[in-house]
Amino acid sequence: MSTDIFMITPNPIVSGVIWFMVFAVFLYMARDSAHKAIRSFSRVLNNGLRLSSRALEPLEKRLALRNREVLLAAGRSEKERKIEREFERVTSSVSKELADTPSLYRKISEELTKLEEDYKESVEVPPSPPGWVNAVEAVAKIPSKGDPVVVDILEDIHESLVKAHNATTEEYRNTRKERHQLLKDMMPAWRRVLKTMENADKNVTSLLERAKVIDRYMDEYEDILNGTDRAVRMLSSSSFVQFFISSFVLIFAFGVAMVNFHLIARPMAEMVGGNTFIGVHKVSDISALFILLLEITMGLFLMESLRVTSLFPIIGSMKDSMRIKMMWGTFALLLSLASIEAGLAYMRDLLMQDDLATSALLRDGSIVAGSTDFTWITTVTQMGMGFILPFALVLVAIPLESFVHSLRTVLGVAGIVAIRSVAFLLRLIGHGFHYLGSTMIHAYDLVIFAPLWIEQAIRNRSSGPKEVLAGDRRKVDPPELVKEAS
Fold first, then answer.
1. Is the pLDDT of residue 246 over 70?
2. pLDDT level of residue 108 (50, 70, 90 thresholds)
3. Residue 374: strand, helix, or coil
4. Where are the domains of the chain?
5. Fewer beta carbons under 10 A from the terminal one: N or C of the chain?
6. In Å, how far are 85, 106, 107, 251, 405 from 73, measured between CA atoms?
């Protein structure tokens, strides 16, 4: 019945054509208003999206500036910490290695003085000629002329000279032997002096290398203070590297925590009851998770007390006595928790053995002899894991600190990328609405193509000859006449 209302003729196709022509006429009559409405709608959407995209630019700049400030502040804090530690190491080196420099130089001076004295004693002194040489020379000038008395005297003198020569030679040999012994005794002293100088040179070289490291840190620190683009790029790349490395280590630590959790979950179910629930979670699982989180917390406090990390600045700013007490307290509590876990692991092994024995009895009613000869291996392994894993989780504080500090930079960069992507998407959608308006106008004209064709034909018929004459005049007449004619 409802379709019969629109049936103008018995033929539905003819009725559809007539209604389409009527609808096209109405659309043709509203053509100008419809075009203006479509243009206005597309312009409003385009301008609105473009304004929204431009409104995001200040937010992007503020976020980039904030990210830059956070990055420079974190880099400045890190460099200050590194420079402080290098100065502490230099101070320690100076106090330990160079504190005995005066005694070292005094020792070297004493050794050198002793060496000089030994060297002076070892100098070879030629023996002085005997006093009777001149007397012998005078006697030798006496003419003998075959006098036997003179011959005997000369023979006695010769024998005396030979004896004196032998005594002098023996004395000279003894003197050289003593000199060589002194030179031999000087070798350990020279070696001690050389070793002392090598140690001093090693200490000075170590200080020079640390000074070079401090100079490099100071140059980087100056770049950070000046806020140079090079420093920002270096800090940004370093933050991303730390983020990915710390994320990988934290994933590994999460796996260790899961192993630790399953190690104590079964015995905790026997202690607190495995059929008790809080919501949808077992009380035993919650208790095991609580022990695990308590161990991680104690590990964080222990690393903070040791000043390895700085997640809680108030712990690092405590007095040394209070901080040391806190360190020993957290270590004692962590040791107690590790011992408790070792006991729970032993209990877990007993429960597993009971389950195996029960299943064996249910299968064939007997237990295989000798099947429990090597069960102590699994018992010791589980107890060792229960005792060691809590201490392994202590080291989670180091990658956690790196992850927290680098996460700010990564989130800032991700926020900038997200804002730029949204701005680009808004501009793209705005241009899409702009061209969509033009497309809708053409589609609107396509629907009313028949009235538009009729209108164009009427205009061409009514203004055709004038346009031809005008066109002929434009071809012949100069531009001034064409302008006057128009």
1. yes
2. low
3. coil
4. 4-62+423-485, 98-226, 234-365+372-408
5. N
6. 18, 49, 50, 28, 11
